[in-house]
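Notebook, bench 3.
Goal today: get a predicted structure for Bifunctional diguanylate cyclase/phosphodiesterase from Lysobacter yangpyeongensis so we can plan the truncation constructs. The sequence was checked against the plasmid map this morning, with no discrepancies at the termini. Length recorded as 449 residues. Pasting the sequence as submitted so the record is complete.
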Amino acid sequence: MAIIEDELTGLHNRRSFLALLRRHVGLANERKSNLALIVADIDGFARLNATHGYDFGDRALQHVATQLREMIRAQDYAARIGDNRFALILPGLMNAGHAELAVQKFFRRLDLPFDGGAGRVRMTATVGVALCPHHATQPEFLLSQAEKALDLARGTGQRWLFPPDASDDRGLSEFWDLEIELGGAVQRGETFLVYQPKLRLPDLVTVGAEALMRWQHRSRGLVSPAQFIPIAEQTGQIKTMTIWALNSALRHAGEWKHPHVPFGVAVNVPADLVGQDDLPDLVENALSLWSTPDVQLVLEITERSLVMDPRHSFRILSRIRDMGVKISIDDFGTGYSCLAYFKDIPADELKIDKSFVSGLLIDATCADITSLIIDLAHRFGLHVVAEGVEDEETLEALRQRNCDVVQGHLFAKAMALDDFAQWLRPGPNGALRPGPSGTADGRNADDHC
């Protein structure tokens, strides 16, 4: 039988706490009710141990556990989740004010001096509080939000805080149904990929495609990626969706008749995933299942992915490139471009952001930046893709600047899987077939996911 109690305090241990958190966050989502998660660190606990001894420290932790056990309601849960870290799960709260009352009640109980036999001490704590659904609708992300608030409170000298920029009580999220239903969208088959072709200059041979994620909501219909991707990132679901996109794109590409070999299929990877140590393993698993010699996997990442922790990100991306995967820096020029990292950058391609491409003919600055990016990339052995190409004049300007690959509505909007497979079939005398008149979702196909 699994042990659910912390041996020292008799509260739930970390493993039991996480199971309870998953269960009650799920119930809160189903019932559209509020839940509070309170995470508390006992201040100066290492000093207390050093001054009074470890036995005294153990009794102090037991005292804290007693205060928590006596203050909670019948439906609440108290746990010890670290050496001097405790947590409370408070389901069914009316609003954020009730969570604050619980925090103040805890502080009042700690204000009473504790006599552990080797002296009397008055303990204090630093607390972080996160609310479901206000701050997060997934258990792991809710915990990280509460711990983030705790760290911020400690760093700013405050006793407790909600997560940054979210301390007001707005009640249920405006997109409550999206947050809940997005969690099972992949499993229900509601997500799908559309593909926008990438064409080589100067001959306009189709050499690849970018996979873009879409969601067909059961009641709302097609939901814009600009709406559901941030929700996926906020709720911690983006990783699952990215893994699904990787596998789906490789599977689809393996079934296409390619006009060019190897044929590139590009999948967008969010910045938060680029720094995760298991990303190479996830990519390797997808390749082992679906890769074929005719398909070249490309991961599109943003500049922000690199600057958050360049050394760590470079190591992870280098491992992925060693598998034969190409790395593309998306929306280049809009973020934190730095010449210093170019000599070591683990990338094969730069994508010029469409804001520069669209201004190429009318804005001298955009034209200069575009020329500079192309020249810079070529000097470092990188290919260049220009996205957002919508007219022949812009295409010609890019051709004159020796851009390598183009992508945009001039050639085709993002197409559903069957339409894209049809696009790849040559027309009479080998001519390219035009793309369908509209995107797969009626929106700008250059919205990245």
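The two ends are 44 Å apart (CA to CA). The chain is about 40% helix and 20% strand.
Flagging this for group meeting.
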